[in-house]
DNA sequence: AGAAGGACCAGTGGTCCGTA
DNA sequence: AGAAGGACCAGTGGTCCGTA
């Protein structure tokens, strides 16, 4: 099957490019512990490369617990999805076919590196220079081999990363609490909104200003829902404070 | 003709809204001398309103030299184009069916006022707040009755306004020189690029930074051609300076 | 010929929903 | 059921070119 062979080669190509990308990105804090962890994008890329090569040279061993029960046995060259996230505490490595939250946040740092590269190219060429992670940056990341980075995913968890940036201690405590309670990622994600709204309340409700004041956060668009929550809560707070300070008795 | 009557009414409505808009905008420097000058958008609106009313009440006089030889006698309710610009010196009012450059620059100030209004509405609603004159602002301006403001025109002359903001004296001298030579607006417009490139050269070639550092200019996108000229000239300048400082003889 | 601006187009921000 | 991400869509920045 020519198409599948090409696909394997293309994935092989992506894989190599990605390793190079990882090396380049290593300047900003190293690749992290995921390089040796099964189940992360990086390791999956390596698995895929091994499989691609096996088709050509029929070699390599099977050192991963779940290596071959994926892809329905249809050749093993489909681009598989990333493993889903689970709630992990800081420093904890996800076991099995899962990714942890340190890895999630690492993806945001990678996007930042890609943005910086896109900015450098734009400046070099005298073109207009993005200040945010735009479609152009996601496209660049994909071309550079980071096929596990995509816009819907990154946008989905932006506010979780925001909490991690703005109050790492609160973020860590939340992760531990939700892990202990056995909550799923969706519940943890929802729970990240409230502490951010509280931060905004303390700083005049200007969530845009809060994002922009933080260098690693400023490159991300403020999520619509977070903006709406801040707005709604501000109005509630204003109404209740004017009520308690006005002609109504506080209870 | 129902359509024409409605059109007349709609233009009447726009006209009134615009007058209100002018009053609101007057806070930032007054409406300027154009309020009483035939041939500007404002006066044309008034003419159009008079014509529209004449259809209904058959009254009003003809106090403008060119009032009725426009529109091919087809009813007088077409939305006519703005009079073309001519090169005027500062303070000079364009005569005949022309608009002057003070009026052109006034349009940029009006757009700024519209942007500020859009920003205030967005903040009020907790929506994302534009920092530049976007399509949304042009739409708002049109709805507010400023039908003589449109994107292609404003973008076309942005760099002329930039020179006016960044070096008003140089801008004024250029206007006088081109008026004296009897040059048309297109020639003057072209001539506005070079002084801006010279300004950029003095400030490290970063035309975006130059725009952003000026409060009235920061709300406008840097025109593509100006960006390209700065980039090209920077490369030329770098090449020649490295040549003269390197292994080639300067001539 | 010189100029104003309606209208188009490629690529954007945003996220839904068919997929695994 | 919970979650990842391809793919769509309304509205954007940019400006061409049919119009006057």
Automatic annotation (TrEMBL), chains A, B:
Compositional bias of kind Acidic residues: 61-71
Main location: nucleus
Biased composition (Basic residues): 45-54
Residue ranges of the region described as Disordered: 13-87
Entry keywords, A to Z: Activator, Developmental protein, DNA-binding, Nucleus, Transcription, Transcription regulation
Subcellular location: Nucleus
Domain of life: Eukaryota
Keyword Transcription regulation belongs to the record: yes
Residues annotated as domain Floricaula/leafy DNA-binding C-terminal: 72-238
Family of the protein in this entry: Belongs to the FLO/LFY family.
Record function comment: Probable transcription factor.
Protein known as: Floricaula/leafy-like transcription factor
Source species: Xanthoceras sorbifolium
Species classification: Eukaryota, Viridiplantae, Streptophyta, Embryophyta, Tracheophyta
């Amino acid at each position: 099957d020519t198409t599948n062979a090409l696909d394997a080669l293309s994935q092989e190509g992506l894989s190599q490019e990605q390793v190079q990308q990882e090396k380049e990105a290593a300047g900003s804090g190293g690749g992290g512990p995921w390089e040796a962890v099964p189940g992360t994008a990086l390791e999956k890329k390596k698995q895929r490369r091994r499989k691609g090569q096996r088709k050509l040279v029929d070699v390599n061993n099977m050192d991963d617990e779940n290596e071959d029960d994926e892809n329905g046995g249809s050749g093993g060259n489909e681009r598989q999805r990333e493993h889903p996230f689970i709630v992990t505490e800081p420093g904890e490595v996800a076991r099995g076919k899962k990714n942890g939250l340190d890895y999630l946040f690492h993806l945001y740092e990678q996007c930042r590196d890609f943005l910086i590269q896109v900015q450098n190219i734009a400046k070099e060429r005298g073109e207009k220079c993005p200040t945010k992670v735009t479609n152009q940056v996601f496209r660049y990341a994909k071309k550079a081999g980071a096929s596990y980075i995509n816009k819907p995913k990154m946008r989905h968890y932006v506010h979780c990363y925001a909490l991690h940036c703005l109050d790492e201690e609160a973020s860590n405590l939340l992760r531990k609490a939700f892990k202990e309670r056995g909550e799923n990622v969706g519940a943890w994600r929802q729970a990240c909104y409230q502490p951010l709204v509280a931060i905004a309340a303390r700083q005049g409700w200007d969530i845009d200003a809060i994002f922009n004041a933080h260098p690693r956060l400023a490159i991300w668009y403020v999520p619509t829902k977070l903006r709406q929550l801040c707005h709604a809560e501000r109005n509630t707070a204003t109404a209740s404070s004017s009520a308690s300070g006005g002609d109504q008795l506080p209870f």
